[in-house]
């Protein structure tokens, strides 16, 4: 598949908040109520379009269990975006946000875009964390905030795409050095400056249909 | 100072008399002709006679040498420019060796002492004393001028380089400075006649002046050099430490680069290159050839490899920092343990690749069971049996060689991606395992690697067999032979990726042993 940019995302947060379900909803547009516990890290990928440009999101879905914490930390490096997820029906998952945030900030680059997500918004009757609390936390720590439901797909698409848009804007502003892969951004093959000898390959018209089946 | 001066002197002599004794008669001849010329000049330009006072004689001689000097300059300008930097170097080299005591000597005692030694050295040149005088002054002048300009240029160059943010001077920049230096030497030569007309006393004081100048500029070079080095060092540390106190990240980063190229990067580059090439091919209406790296990425082999590399690196950093903290027997003991684990992980290169594949499942299950982690090779086995089914049922009359090739490459890429994914998962599970049993784990991983690579070879052979069947009926024999070669090539790649993934697990095993 050809793309203009590739963004690396990580999804982090307590176990059982719905990280893998959010990923599945985003990549496969389906919901799986019973899910195996994630071991270490699993991956998902999807192509999106921003500003007419094809962007590949490569999503690293990490295990939320405490036991994997030290392992998953080693995967933070080189992420351009992070989805920090809590469960609106379980207050402790909200209370742990500070720890997660510290971890993320410590082990990744400072320009990483972090999106705070209050998941399971479909379970309004069991809500323990008010939307305002999430908003306040996000404001305080300079995060983007959104409530989602992996089950009904509400805001799922938006959460992933808005994060990408934010990263894209940072690239335009020159905050992200796209040539430094430690920032979690890779330039797609047809934009690669290493192939100046192939002017025909950059044809915008052809880039849409490219790639393999 | 005396040594450096005489060194100057000698080197200057060498310059003009490369093989001094043998060449002297020739020189005398040329001098004689110059003397003739000068005598002519005397008639025209000066009123001086030979009987006049010694000082005038010296003047005359200086005129001679001047003339001679010009002549020699004209005869061998290239050697001139080449030789002078050498004498400068000698000056520079000797200056640091001179202790400060010596400088003090000059200040405290009478200033003439070194000058006398200077003049003493002139008579050693016998009939060529004036000739020698010229040498000393001109060389010292050029030398000091050269040194000053060099110091200026170098320090200026370095600061400008530092200001532009680079930690070390660019070789090109330095080369440019050097080349811009050359005209300066020539300038020094042109200014010569003015100095020479001062007479002996002037000349002597000139020498003192010059020697001091050389010394101070020498000190400047040394000081300036040290300052520059210090600045470079400081700047480098600042840049390195930026946002990374204690160099934690840098250490990790440097480690990656120093050891070996990161395979996932190489693969990604290869993949991207291939994608661009494919696009070109498409545009030219050629059949699109299946690309192994692209398919390997599509099956998430690449990202698992990348994650495994990160995990491996993390373990490596842990081990290194532990090794650094240990001393004495503890260190030796740990190093021995590390080496033992590496030895356990040595893969025997056996070429009998066509082992029995009928008990593949039992072999894999048996290997995994030793590790006591919850991992299954079901998916890999399923993919393999699907591939076998496809190969059994394929109708070669319908399936074109291009289709066959695409499917074959995809099978190899998928099996390899799954194998790498399993190794990554094993790494993660081992790291969270409560009680590690390193020897068993190493043994299991070796078995797994051997079994999976055997499987890949087996599949590749079967795929190639299909092409061989096709070869008997097809007219495109060259094309098919190329595709067969490609299949074997990519299967060899597959095997090396799998072995690489296994190698990446060694630090994971080692961490378990500490």
Uncertain stretches of chain B = 1-25, 45-130, 161-167, 184-198
Mean pLDDT of chain A: 87
What is the count of DSSP helices of chain B, taking H or I runs of 4+ residues?
20
Count of distinct strands of chain B: 0
- Largest sheet descriptor of chain A: 7 strands, mixed
Distance between the termini of chain A: 9 Å
* Beta-strand proportion of chain A: 15-25%
Q: Specify the helix fraction band of chain A.
A: 25-40%
Distance between the termini of chain B: 62 Å
Let me know the largest β-sheet of chain B: none
Radius of gyration of chain B: 39 Å
Q: Helix/strand/pairing class of chain B, anyone?
A: mainly alpha
Q: Please give the count of helices of chain A.
A: 7
The overall strand count of chain A is: 7
Mean pLDDT of chain B: 70
Membrane topology (chain A): Lipid-anchor
GO biological process, one term (chain A): protein transport
Pfam families (chain A): Ras (PF00071)
GO molecular function (chain A): GTP binding; GTPase activity
What does it look like?
The complex is a heterodimer of chains A (213) and B (514). Chain A is an alpha/beta fold and 213 residues long. Chain A is built from 7 helices and 7 strands. In chain A, strands 1, 2, 3, 4, 5, 6 and 7 form a 7-stranded mixed sheet that branches. The C terminus of chain A is likely disordered. Chain B is mainly alpha-helical and 514 residues long. Helix content of chain B is 81%, strand content 0%. Chain B has 20 helices and no strands. In chain B, helix 4 packs across helix 10. The longest helix of chain B has 43 residues. Chain B is flat, with a radius of gyration of 39 Å. The two termini of chain B are 62 Å apart. Classes of the chains: A alpha/beta (213), B mainly alpha (514). The interface between A and B is medium-sized, with 33 and 34 residues.
């Amino acid at each position: 598949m050809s793309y203009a940019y590739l963004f690396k995302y990580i999804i982090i947060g307590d176990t059982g908040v719905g990280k893998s379900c959010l990923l599945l909803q985003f990549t496969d547009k389906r919901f799986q109520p019973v899910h195996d516990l994630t071991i270490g890290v699993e991956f998902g990928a999807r192509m999106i379009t921003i500003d007419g440009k094809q962007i590949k999101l490569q999503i690293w879905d990490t295990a939320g269990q405490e036991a994997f914490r030290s392992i998953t930390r080693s995967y933070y490096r080189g992420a351009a975006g992070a989805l920090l997820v809590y469960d609106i029906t379980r207050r402790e998952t909200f209370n742990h946000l500070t720890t997660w945030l510290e971890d993320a900030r410590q082990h990744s680059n400072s320009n990483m875009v972090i999106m705070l997500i209050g998941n399971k918004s479909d379970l309004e009757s069991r809500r323990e964390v008010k939307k305002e609390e999430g908003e306040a936390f996000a404001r305080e720590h300079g995060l983007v905030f959104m409530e989602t439901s992996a089950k009904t797909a509400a805001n799922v698409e938006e959460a992933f795409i808005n994060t990408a848009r934010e990263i894209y804007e940072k690239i335009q502003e020159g905050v992200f050095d796209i040539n430094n892969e430690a920032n979690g951004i890779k330039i797609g093959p047809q934009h690669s400056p290493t192939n100046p000898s192939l002017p025909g390959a950059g044809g915008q018209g052809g880039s849409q249909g490219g790639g393999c089946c | 100072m005396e040594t450096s001066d005489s060194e100057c002197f000698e080197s200057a002599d060498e310059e003009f008399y490369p093989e001094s004794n043998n060449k002297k008669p020739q020189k005398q001849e040329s001098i004689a002709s110059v003397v003739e010329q000068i005598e002519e000049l005397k008639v025209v330009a000066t009123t001086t006679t030979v009987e006049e006072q010694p000082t005038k004689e010296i003047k005359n001689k200086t005129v001679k040498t001047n003339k001679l000097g010009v002549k020699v300059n004209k005869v061998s300008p290239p050697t001139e420019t080449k030789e002078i930097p050498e004498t400068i170097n000698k000056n520079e080299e000797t200056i640091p060796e001179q202790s400060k005591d010596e400088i003090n000597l000059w200040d405290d005692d009478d200033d003439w002492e070194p000058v006398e030694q200077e003049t003493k050295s002139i008579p050693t040149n016998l009939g060529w004393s004036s000739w020698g005088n010229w040498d000393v002054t001109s060389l010292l002048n050029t030398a000091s001028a050269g040194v000053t300009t060099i110091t200026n240029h170098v320090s200026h160059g370095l600061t400008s380089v530092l200001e532009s943010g680079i930690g070390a001077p660019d070789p090109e920049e330095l080369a440019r400075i050097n080349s811009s230096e050359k005209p300066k030497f020539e300038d020094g030569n042109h200014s010569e006649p003015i100095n020479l007309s001062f007479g002996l006393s002037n000349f002597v004081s000139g020498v003192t002046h010059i020697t001091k100048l050389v010394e101070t500029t020498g000190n400047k070079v040394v000081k300036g050099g040290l300052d520059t080095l210090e600045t470079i060092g400081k700047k480098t540390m600042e840049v390195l430490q930026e946002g990374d106190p204690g160099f934690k990240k840098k250490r990790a980063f440097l480690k990656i680069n120093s050891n070996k190229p990161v395979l996932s990067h190489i693969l990604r580059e290869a993949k991207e290159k291939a994608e661009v090439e494919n696009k070109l091919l498409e545009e030219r209406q050629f059949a699109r050839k299946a690309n192994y790296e692209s398919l390997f990425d599509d099956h998430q082999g690449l990202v698992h490899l990348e994650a495994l590399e990160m995990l491996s690196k993390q373990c490596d950093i842990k081990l290194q920092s532990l090794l650094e903290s240990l001393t004495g027997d503890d260190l030796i003991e740990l190093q021995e343990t590390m080496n033992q684990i590496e030895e356990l992980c040595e893969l025997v290169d056996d070429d009998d690749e066509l082992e029995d594949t009928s008990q593949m499942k039992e072999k894999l299950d048996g290997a995994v069971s030793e590790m006591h982690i919850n991992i299954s090779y079901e998916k890999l086995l399923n993919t393999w049996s699907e591939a076998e089914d496809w190969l059994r049922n394929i109708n070669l009359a319908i399936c074109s060689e291009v289709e066959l090739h695409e499917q074959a490459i995809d099978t190899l890429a998928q099996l390899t991606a799954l194998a790498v994914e399993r190794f990554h998962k094993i790494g993660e599970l081992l790291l969270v395992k409560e009680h590690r049993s390193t020897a068993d784990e190493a043994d299991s991983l070796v078995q797994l690697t051997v079994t999976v690579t055997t499987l890949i070879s087996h599949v590749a052979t079967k795929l190639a067999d299909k092409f061989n069947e096709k070869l008997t009926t097809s007219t495109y024999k060259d094309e098919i032979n190329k595709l067969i070669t490609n299949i074997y090539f990519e299967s060899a790649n597959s095997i090396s990726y799998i072995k690489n993934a296994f190698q990446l697990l060694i630090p994971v095993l080692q961490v378990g042993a500490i």
